Structures are given as C-alpha cells and as structure tokens.
C-alpha cells in the first residue's frame, strides 16, 4: 500500500495509490463502511491528513488496506466514485507535509562514503533539515547558484 498526501483543488488530502488512481481514504471510508458494514474500532471518521493517520496507528492502517482492496475489487474509478481520482489529475505533496523536525543521518552506508571519497565515520553524522525545504514528487529542486554542481537523492522515513 502506497500512502500519499496529495492536493486536489488546493486542499491537501490523505490517499493511497494503486495503478494510475488515488483513493481519498477519508472520503471513501463512509462508502466502504456502508457497503461492507464494517465500523470497527477505527471510529466513525477517518483521518484526512498523514500526521493524524500515523498517530492513529494499527487499526486505521488495516482499514486503509481494506478500503484500497475494496476499491480495486469493486472496479471503482472517478466515473462512479467521487473519492477516486486519476493520478494525473492530482498534485503529489511531501508525504508528511509539516513534520515537527527532520533529523538526518549522513554517510550512513559504505557505498555513499566511497562515492564521496570519505572514510566511514566512527559515530553517526547527524544534521537537520528545515520542514520548509520539503517538496513533493516531480517538483523542481532549487538551490542557491554556486552552492553545488549537482544534487543527490535521499530516501525519507516517517
């Protein structure tokens, strides 16, 4: 299951991606609950943003998987469900758009040390990033002129 934060008409939403579709989980939840008759401990509402979703934990993850599987098996799309959107019609945002802090670990694997011609550190190399520096997939990376000749990719873990 691929979780995303996306924007549709300028409003950030929580969703899952399958194939070329995005499912708005909070908007799909009432339809799923009504058709499947499953309320469970996930509550009567579903988180509409990633941070709330992550804070809710276990049960809500299971429900998100069930909703995604239900939409797939019901062959729903934007023609017959208002909570399914073409991936090409939404803007993907940073997965956690406003984290409290971002703590990074540099030179954390041997290949990267070799790429940089640096020795493997004896203790973790930590640095911070500002939350305002986050961008979504396919967005343009900008940096001050003269600061570097190339940029490097990084994986994020929420």
Give a quick precis of the structure.
With 158 residues, this protein is an alpha+beta fold.
Q: Any descriptors?
A:
5-stranded antiparallel beta sheet; SH3 type barrels; 2 domains; alpha+beta; 26% helix; 158 residues; two-stranded antiparallel ribbon
The stretches of 5 or more residues where confidence is low (pLDDT under 50) are: 38-43
Strand content: 15-25%
CATH topology annotation of the largest domain:
SH3 type barrels
Chain-averaged pLDDT: 87
Strand order of the largest sheet: 4-3-2-1-5
What count of helical segments does DSSP give?
4
CATH class of the largest domain: Mainly Beta
Helix content: 25-40%
Structure description:
It is a single chain. The chain has 158 residues and is of the alpha+beta class. It folds into two domains: 2-92, Fumarylacetoacetase, N-terminal domain (SH3 type barrels); 102-133, no CATH class. 26% of the residues lie in helices and 22% in strands. The protein has four helices and seven strands. The protein has helices at residues 25-36, 50-56, 58-73, 110-115, and strands spanning 2-8, 11-18, 21-24, 84-86, 91-92, 102-106, 125-129. The longest helix has 16 residues, at 58-73.
